[in-house]
């Protein structure tokens, strides 16, 4: 049954005003649906969406929470850096970034952290 239903990501935010400013000013996203002051939905490519919601649990996950697929990771990284985004640098067995971008057997990836401590990702398949 679930395989036929739309799926969307859910991201926590401690401070909705700060988070909305980050997603607007740094990522260039505007809300598609403001359900109320504590729940805002954003629409991205191919009809995909994510919900930003208020909770004190924001920033506690130590894993990638949302990712965007791109055809040109270098252009996306460069654009986001020009907006003030700082990409994470990793160096551990199986994953090393160079200038914020890791090359893996399944593609290239880059990670950054939003205003609420959520780990976000950009990914390019080979």
Automatic annotation (TrEMBL):
Occurrences of domain VOC (ranges): 5-125
SUPFAM superfamilies registered for this protein in UniProt: Glyoxalase/Bleomycin resistance protein/Dihydroxybiphenyl dioxygenase (SSF54593)
Superkingdom of this protein's organism: Bacteria
Identification of the protein by name: VOC family protein
């Amino acid at each position: 049954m679930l395989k036929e239903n739309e799926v969307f990501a859910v991201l926590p935010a401690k401070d909705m005003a700060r988070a909305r400013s980050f997603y607007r000013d740094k990522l260039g996203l505007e809300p598609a649906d403001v359900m109320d002051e504590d729940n805002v939905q954003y629409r991205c490519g191919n009809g995909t969406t994510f919900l930003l919601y208020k909770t004190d649990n924001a920033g506690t996950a130590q894993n990638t929470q949302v990712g965007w697929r791109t055809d040109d990771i270098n252009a996306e990284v460069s654009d986001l850096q020009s907006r003030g985004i700082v990409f994470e640098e990793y160096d551990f067995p199986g994953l090393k970034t160079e200038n914020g971008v890791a090359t893996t057997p399944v593609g290239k990836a880059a990670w950054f952290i939003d205003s609420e401590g959520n780990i976000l990702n950009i990914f390019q398949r080979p």
